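Incident log, entry 3
Record: Cytochrome C oxidase subunit I (126 residues)
Problem: checksum mismatch between cached and fresh output.
Input:
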Amino acid sequence: MSQDDDTRELSPQAAAATVNEVEGFLLVQAEWDTARREGKEFADRLPWLTTAQHEEVARVYAEQRMRLTRRMLRTVVSRAHSLRDEYENRYTVLRVRLWKLSTLAVCSAVLWTVCLTTWVYSCLGE
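Fresh output:
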């Protein structure tokens, strides 16, 4: 490994992407830990199970819980994307509307100034 490799800097976008990836990994691991714990707690409420059955119930519970989590996350992500699109569209419409109103206001002010100046000069010229 050369010295250049040790001092290499990431762009802000690459650093943010790396942080997001690590954060996502840690969140998934925490979710798996929670799902396994809940699976064990569920299986513990079934004292008649053999050890193998207990482990199987806990494993199946955790896997089902993670499938549910994935479905919920996909739904949330989909909704977030649709909301972002909706708000971007609204922002665009509002920005265009504001630009039109600003242009109208400037044109009105210029026209008002021209009319007033013309009237003042016509009154002074008499």
